[in-house]
Write a structure and sequence with these properties.
The protein has seven helices and ten strands. It is an alpha/beta fold. The chain has one domain (19-235): Nucleoside phosphorylase domain (Rossmann fold), CATH 3.40.50.1580.
Length: 240
Amino acid sequence: MPLTPTPHNSAVAGDIAKTVLMPGDPLRAKYIADTYLDDVRCVNEVRNMLAFTGTYQGNPVTVMGHGMGMPSIGIYSYELFNFYDVDTIIRVGSAGGYADDLQLRDVVAAQGACTNSRYAHQFNLPGDFAPIASFDLLERAVAAARAQGVNIRVGNVLSSDTFYEETTDAALAWKKMGVLAVEMEAAALYMNAARAGKKALCLLTISDKPLTGEGLPADERQTSFNQMMEVALALTTPEA
């Protein structure tokens, strides 16, 4: 029985490239495809979770939305790794900055992803799992950012199951532990990649600062993260 298409993805085998860039917002996926890719074709519209396959500097690339939260990226990344034979997923998303010296639009590479989720419980591990990025991708992302003149911060982020917290106590506690920023998906992506023996990296642009109330409007979140996107796209080309 063929594994593709799936209930969540109408693409068939061969429609998805080995490397996939994943923003949360499917309209941001369309923006990336329209702005950076050549020979683009839409390969999924199920649930409006748009996916586009094209080429970047001659190399096949797919860009696909993953929705909000670990259950959503958990489904899409699992299917891409295990059903579509994807080797690499790079999440390109937004995050709320915790660190005092992070500013709006700064770029963060998530070396590790703390979480308040029980996503790892499914693996029946005899202890706590530490979700981390592929070092190869992380190292290349830092090099690409430096080559492009992008100031990139590397460190721990929090993948949270909750967006609206009752108090700021939890945020302050994570901040005290040196966690740079909060988002909602990296930990699940890193766990799925580890289980599948594949590669993953989460690159983030700071879109707001929840402890100070600063933030970007929704339209700028969709289209103004070009530095992060260009660092991610540099990872889709073969290493020199």
